[in-house]
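User: Sequence in, structure out. Go.
Assistant: Echoing your sequence, followed by the structure tokens.
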Amino acid sequence: MCVVLFTSAEPLYLPRYLQPIFEAHADTIDQVVIAPFDASPAEQLRSQAGMYGARAGIRMALRYGRSRGLDALPGQVARRVTGRYHSVPSVARAHGIPVERIPDVSDPTFVERMEDLAPDLLLSIVAGQRLPGPVLESANDAVNLHGSLLPKYRGRATAFWPLFYGDDRTGVTAHRMTERFDAGPILAQRAFPLDNADTVDTVYRKLAKVGASLVVELLAAYPELPAERPNGTTPADYHGLPGPEERRLFYERGNAFL
């Protein structure tokens, strides 16, 4: 079986998400493709600042910086010190999986390579770019793992919105990929409860744990996949990053980012 996994370079939650998957299925994952977000670093910084605000934003920036610093240590030093990996490349390479950064997954050269490879399965976990039709068509199957119980909360900030709206649970959805974000037929879902102690940070950690478990199960069963069911999404289900007003209401309701 040939699996190509598309993801991004987020250092805090994705290494936690991917490590159990690689531990269980490194022999079937041929390549990890880091497909970074289309926005420039400055644009991403502005968006994150709008979501987190000054106080939580500074704390998140310090966490990112710490992860970058730990990842720069030689060998397995950071792993021995903290018990985990601090970047997607480090966790992939530790399991013998090649990693490649592709700035534009619609580049004709990359598309041609994927067509020549003809993977059995494309797996997307927080990839920064939409996979175009020719890439999706290069494989027998293409599955995305989304951090909400679709059709609710298509889009981004999937740990924020369930807390913002006071939901009593959230979870992870595996769905077939289409050229529309988070809109393909649903294959499987795993839910977990939310409580008053949850923060955006704890929800992201739970999403990583539950999502990893679901992926391990799906890969173990492949090529058998659960029966599809409709993903009755509407434009109102899409949510982007929250802005200052949503952040103000979030705090007023007693919620927290960290």
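User: And one key feature?
Assistant: The two ends are 40 Å apart (CA to CA).
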